[in-house]
């Protein structure tokens, strides 16, 4: 007879044991799956995220980069003339105001010229005195030289007589009627007269040279004085301040009664229909900024082209300056005083990898930018960038054609290994 213990000690079939293990393993797997799901869910919640709409991206492609360096610029009138006071004087009247459009010769202001005009009148009198002195000197010179010429003519006539006397004495001597002593005496008298004539001629030539030198010196002195007088007249004419051309009056000294010094700025007229750009750049680029170079000027979203006209040869505080003449100097976007980004084109590179330029780029070197790993994930990538222009930056290494790169500011995500992109 079998007992209950014998029934309980009977072996459990293998199939039952396998089934029980499968159930137990299934429970474990379910627990692991739940844990892993929770972990992934928590990881997703903890991953940094960014809205897709806030991102600016650039597709890596191949193309041309006209390499440029960046300078700063300011739009200024293409023509601007500073009018200075030629004398120190008081402002008596002002005829125009800043912002007025003026024509050539338009009176701008009047200075007190009473003292200057008195000096000019005195200078005119002195000029007349010099002219009379010149007439007197010329007359005296002609008179004295004429007297000298008369003396020479008299001496020449006297020598003619002495020569005739010598011939007579020689003839008488040949007939026996004269003496050797008388011939000898006639010869001595003639030679003496000839020497005196030679001396008079030399004196005359010397006096002619001296008189000419005196006249020339007097003429030079009078010429200097006349030039000074002409300058005084021009100064007086300039003291009647007028516009030198048709333009806009952008500055005028309008304090009636104030004293302006000689050489002081009293007005500025500008052509506000045509403009140029005054630029500055670090002197480290001085070898790449040359007259004749092409330039792109960006004013807001407007792109305008121009040519470098002049370059200041000396550096000041580490900066050199240059002027750009615009291809279209009357473009409606050009306004005096506007700030502009200036790109000096220095080279052209063809068939290079490139991405859009942006605030992230500060010069050739290594950068860490985020690229799309998949449609919803950004990962950081270290890339090496080269030259740039106003639109593109050259990619030397780290990216391939077709990669999508974030070029907007991602500084807040610095150090993140992954960023989720939300639609």
SSE topology sketch:
Layout: H1 4-8, H2 14-46, E1 48-51, E2 57-59, E3 61-77, E4 80-84, E5 89-94, E6 101-102, E7 107-111, H3 114-175, H4 180-239, E8 240-242, E9 247-252, E10 259-260, E11 265-270, E12 275-282, E13 294-299, E14 302-311, E15 319-326, E16 339-356, E17 365-374, E18 377-388, E19 392-397, E20 404-406, E21 419-422
Parallel strand pairs: 1-21
Antiparallel strand pairs: 2-20, 3-12, 3-16, 4-11, 5-7, 5-10, 6-9, 7-8, 9-11, 12-15, 13-14, 13-16, 14-15, 16-19, 17-18, 18-19, 18-21
Quick summary of this structure?
Helix 3 runs antiparallel to helix 4. The chain has 4 helices and 21 strands.
Principal-axis shape equals elongated
Per DSSP, the total helix count is: 4
Query: Helical percent range?
Result: 25-40%
Based on DSSP secondary structure assignment, what is the total number of beta strands? 21
Mind explaining what this structure looks like?
With 423 residues, the chain is an alpha+beta fold. Helix content is 38%, strand content 34%. The chain is built from four helices and 21 strands. Strands 3-12-15-14-13-16 form a six-stranded antiparallel barrel. Helix 3 runs antiparallel to helix 4 (180-239). The chain is elongated and about 200 Å long. Residues 1-8 and 38-46 have low confidence and may be disordered.
Pick out its properties.
six-stranded antiparallel β-barrel; alpha+beta; four-stranded antiparallel sheet; elongated; 21 strands; single chain
